[in-house]
Design goal:
39% helix, alpha/beta, 264 residues
């Protein structure tokens, strides 16, 4: 029998607005030992490493710098005006990944800039992400990119799955797909067929239910069928829990044991 799929917890999403140390404590209390971080750049790195070690936590994944997230920015790789800022951020990410022992980073492309030609932006994104992937690979860290849905985040440069896969293909195998099923449902639906179709480039999967980005089982996605499809696709990596608890009574992770998943 195949090993059960294991789940990590994105503490930035699961404990929105909470101080980082409280979020780390919450992850431990929920039974997780492996987490994802949205933004590891704000805390003092020595403090972060110490607090993770004190709790026995490891970081599987974090994002490359995204710009001003609180102001709606979702990546700057496709902005030719910010090449140096992006590369400086990647150099910081290299150091952070080495210190945290992370295995993956996520590179977001960013928004469409009306005053810049689309082709120029796309070429910039290709160049920047290719360079980032090479730098991260030097320290043994894999680089992925993901589709964000245009309902929550309109105006993106890469706004559908086809364009995301085109970007990955143009990068020649150096970058994988971070397949977030919440974003996929809000953009395209057709989850199981897409999981199968993209299995050759998918390097990380994240889950949340739609339409409210809450825990699986609280919305419209049939996760029982979805996880059959994930297993049939051959995916063996971690499943990132990137959801906000709905607030319904009960354990927001009860769906995991029902679907044969374990906490990493």
């Amino acid at each position: 029998m195949a090993e059960p799929l294991s789940c990590t917890l994105n503490v930035s999403f699961h404990f929105p607005g909470a101080p980082l140390l409280s979020a780390l404590d919450g992850a431990v209390a929920a039974g997780f030992r492996t987490i994802e971080l949205l933004d590891p750049y704000s805390p003092d790195l020595d403090d972060l490493v110490r607090e993770l070690q004190r709790r026995g936590l490891r970081v599987d994944l974090f994002n490359l710098p995204m710009g001003a997230f609180s102001r709606g920015e979702r990546g700057i790789a496709g902005d030719p005006r910010r090449r140096d800022e992006f590369r400086s951020g990647v150099e910081r990410a290299v150091v952070i990944a080495e210190r945290l022992g992370a295995t993956k980073v996520n590179a977001l492309v960013g928004h469409r800039i009306e005053e810049i030609d689309v082709a120029t932006q796309f070429e910039c994104a290709l160049e920047q992400i290719a360079w980032a992937a090479e730098r991260m690979a030097e320290v043994g860290v894999a680089t992925n990119t993901e589709l964000l849905n245009p309902v929550d985040t309109p105006g993106l440069l890469v706004a559908d799955l086809g364009a995301t896969l085109d970007l990955i293909a143009a990068l020649g195998g150096s970058v994988g797909l971070q397949l977030d099923l919440y974003h996929l449902q809000r953009t395209h639906g057709d989850l199981i067929a897409t999981i199968q179709r993209t299995s050759d480039v998918t390097r990380h999967i994240q889950v949340a239910d739609a339409p409210d980005r809450t825990e699986p089982g609280s919305g419209e996605i049939n996760f029982e069928n979805v996880f059959v499809g994930i297993r049939q696709s051959g995916y063996e990596g971690h499943i990132g829990c990137e959801f906000r608890p709905s607030g319904d009574p009960g354990d927001p992770f009860a769906w995991m044991s029902r679907l044969g998943l374990v906490k990493a």
